[in-house]
Amino acid sequence: MAHVTWKHLRKAQDDDETIEQAIERIVQEHNDNNEAHVGEGQSLQSHKASEIIDHKARSIIYDKIGEMEVSEEHRKFDKLIFSTHFESLDGYGVGTSGGGNVNLCLADLRLFSGHDSGDHAILYASAHDGNIALDFMRNPIFVSIFRVDSIEDNPADVFCGDPASMGAGWRIEGNELWALVMYAGFSYHEKIYDDFDGTDFNRYKIRIFGDDRVEWFIDDVLVHQITENVPYFDAWVMWWQAQIYNQSDNGSSLYLRYIALLQDK
Question: Span 79-264: which CATH code?
């Protein structure tokens, strides 16, 4: 004799719906009800009414916050913050060779490689006082918005720290996007994409957790990470550097719209 479990029984003599089907239907109706759990003392109502809503750290990302909704009085100012839209080139270092040049525009900054192989343009921000310095043990965050104007094989780099000694950065070269690391004078380059279109402005971010890991993000999406050869001490001689080199005999440009650097006090 076959055994029939209760869930397969009809819920009523005049209804062919089984107990199992009824439970599934009621649960689904509950899930679809946007008024569920909002009554007095229930979970959603309590969540909305709580003085402090506790979420995992960094779980609320920027696209969940409306434009112009964070006012000055709500900024914590517990970090060293350096940011610029390039209103001026005062205080920056500029290096050019051949036909390379740096031009300040109203909405962005243009670094032009020059037309001949070997030409280049460099813009850098130095720390002139060792008491205020980029320190990789203070978990710096480096954000930049930039693009190139062509897919010529002229490497365009945007680098947090000193590209000659210590730091991490980006390189766009043709259709390739690279993650750059300089560790105690030794360079490490890892390709992220080999079909990348760098001619659109993107928001590039690097997070450096000193002596632990480095993370690379594009528009807040993690695209690369390393846990070895992580920059681990201060690079006080250099905040950041941007550069473009001509190695193709065809001129191209790197456009910088914004750069920000944050680190713990």
Answer: 2.60.120.200
Q: pLDDT category, 65, cuts 50, 70, 90?
A: confident
Between CA 12 and CA 209 the distance in angstroms is 63
Tokens, residue 163: 């590209």
d(CA 119, CA 102): 12
- Record the pTM: 0.73
> Residue 113: which of 189, 162, 173 has the closest Cα?
173
104 close to 94: Cβ distance less than 8 angstroms: no
Which residues lie closer than 8 Å to 102 by C-beta, 6 or more apart?
Answer: 89, 94, 96, 109, 110, 111, 112, 121, 122, 123
With residue 94 as reference, give the H or E element that holds it: strand 93-97
Nearest-angstrom CA–CA distance, 156 and 150? 11
- Is the confidence at residue 49, as pLDDT, over 80? no
216 to 99, 121, 170, 181: CA distances (angstroms)? 32, 24, 9, 11
Residue 90 has pLDDT above 60, yes or no: yes
Distance CA 129, CA 57 (A): 33
CA 114, CA 249: separation in Å to the nearest integer? Answer: 8
Q: What is the dihedral of CA 93, 95, 101, 105, to 10 degrees?
A: -10
The CATH 2.60.120.200 portion of the chain extends over 79-264
Q: Is 115 exposed, middle or buried (0-12, 13-18, 19+ CB in 10 A)?
A: middle
